[in-house]
Amino acid sequence: MMSDETSRFDILFEPVRIGPVIAPNRFYQVPHCNGMGHRHPLAHAKMREVKAEGGWGVVCTEEVEIHPSSEFSPYIEGRLWDDGDIPALACMTEAVKRHGALAGIELAHTGLSAANLWSREIPLSPSGGPVRDYYPISTRAMDKADIADLRRWHRAAALRAKKAGFDIVYVYAGHDLGLPMHFLSRSLNSRTDEYGGSLENRARLLKELIEDTKDAVGDTCAVAVRLSIDQLLGPEGITAEGEGREVIALLAELPDLWDVCLASWSNDSMTARFAEEGFQEPYAQVVKALTSKPVVGVGRFTSPDAMVSQVRRGVLDLIGAARPSIADPFLPAKIREGRFDAIRECIGCNICVSGDTTLVPIRCTQNPTMGEEWRRGWHPERIPALGRTERVLILGAGPAGLEAARALAQRGCEVVLADAAAEAGGRAAKEARLPGLSTWKRVADHRLQAILPDPKVSLYLESRMEAEDVAGFDCDAVVVATGSTWRRDGMGRAARRGISGLERFALFTPDDVMAGRPPEGPVLVYDDDHYYMAGVLAELLAGRGLAVTYATPASVVSAFTDYTLEQAKIQARLIRLGVQVRCGVALADGRLGCVHGGPAAAVEAPNLLLVTARDPDDALYRALIALPDGRRLERIGDALAPGTIAAAVYSGHRLAREWDMPAEERFSFKRERVSLEGW
Ligand code: ADP
Ligand code: SF4
């Protein structure tokens, strides 16, 4: 029998009819990219299967190319050009349906957003003009024959999707990527025929594609539409109060399901720095008010109460999630079983997106098994027991140490975890106090929730350990997870041997600021790290009223964050805060000079905050190597090589997973090799 605590979430487990199919519950994994796609179909199928096993009632693909005239290279998405592509996707439907979930496919033609670098077909668009990215490639304005072709291709792809076993087939007008969205857009569509001009005309292609898809597969498959209801461009673009609402009203009852999203992708998948959980509620509400069809909406939902509230208040029918399903594929199962403390909450960092945008399989800060389900056989909830009890001392309770402790205890080890600080969490706890990063705390919280009640784990805070303390400690193995320290000499990518002339400044590093010793006057924040730290600190100090200059040798602010969809937002925020932004400049001898040449100008600020690189804190490790006591000694996380929090969690997890694996075997993972058919 369910307790009151769990029964209040019953509503989330009600089945929902979507056209001719029935979703077993309201948990809906919306389409999301993953860097696997057509290149790694088995890895892709397994990753999706784990979500179905974890209770997601609907599990969708990412964008799936329907034709060589819309080919997404260099990005790796799904592909369904001809019947030969069916088996790779059928792996996924079979795997997902094994667990009673519905499988959805996002058929996509992305018009001017696809440069067709691989197929070399001329890209198509409503009215011509260059492709979206900076490639020197123009699109071709579609004539009536092209539109007829497109409809035929889409219809054929829908039939193939049905053959592959999909239950839900999408017409994609999402983000600023789907071709029907390009037709809707006044700035991209200047046609004078029945596909241009009035909104009804601009929506004609979308309407025809929905009708075609229903006609082709609607007898057994639900037809879903993913539409960007707002481009967040104000009156220049489509808005929820304006044409977004009007399109929905026009087509309200035509599809079997509305999947609400925003354009562009960086607005739809905003990080925690820029949007709160549930931020898309007003947009879903607009759609829900205009249709009787089920509505799926997203908003980085991780709180079961927020989910129930959205359904009860009639904001949406299905809890859409990409990132929360990545961070915790077992989120629905945990809610159903009332295991709320076990939920691994997404932190909204978009490291998952960076897999796709750097053209490699997905990874996740919170879920180190994401992307490893098939190639390493990792399951997010299960790790085989070791079959023996070892006593392991872990030094450092940051993301790496905490995850190693959690996973080793799960395998049956007895773990003693010691940290010098008064609070567990290492950098995740410290950085969580910086603007926009409070969710980082969840990295520590999730692991603490697992280990604190576990009698096999003892956590000692305010316990700095030196080599002599370790020497006398009764254990079988020692794991060093002591983290890293920001450098004070300016060494980074631009100045591999450090920066000259630093003695003229009062010097600060992020460690000083986080330890409560920030600069108090005008400051130059020098970023040769290129991830979030320098931008966040510039924001913090400008917010305190300091005169802040941000300078970087890169051509944009926080360059790596382009991969996490944040770059433009960060740069705009700094400018709005009055930060003087200087890109493409390097610091030497107290002067900033253009990295491409020309005169350098003296820096006037007396304070310099260096955000360049970190050094591993590995002194303890080196001291322990020198102790010939025969115990196993390991080093993980930033103490091994400073990197992202995701890398530290992965490092801790991997150590535990591979604890009993011969060293040589640890390098290998299963690969999907190219077929040599045709040679
Ligand atoms: P990672 O990201 O690799 O987990 P962090 O820097 O987040 O690294 O965490 C390292 C943790 O190690 C910090 O909480 C720090 O207090 C702790 N630490 C560093 N040196 C020692 C030590 N000698 N004894 C115990 N704890 C230590
Ligand atoms: Fe969430 Fe970050 Fe994991 Fe993506 S990588 S799912 S944003 S925790």
TrEMBL record:
Residues 509-581 form the TMADH/DMDH/HD second alpha/beta domain. In the N-terminal section; belongs to the NADH:flavin oxidoreductase/NADH oxidase family. Residues 12-340 form the NADH:flavin oxidoreductase/NADH oxidase N-terminal domain. Its cofactor is FMN; [4Fe-4S] cluster. It comes from Phenylobacterium montanum. GO terms for molecular function: FMN binding; iron-sulfur cluster binding; metal ion binding; oxidoreductase activity. Keywords: Flavoprotein, FMN, Iron, Iron-sulfur, Metal-binding, Oxidoreductase. The keyword Iron-sulfur applies. This is NAD(P)-binding protein.
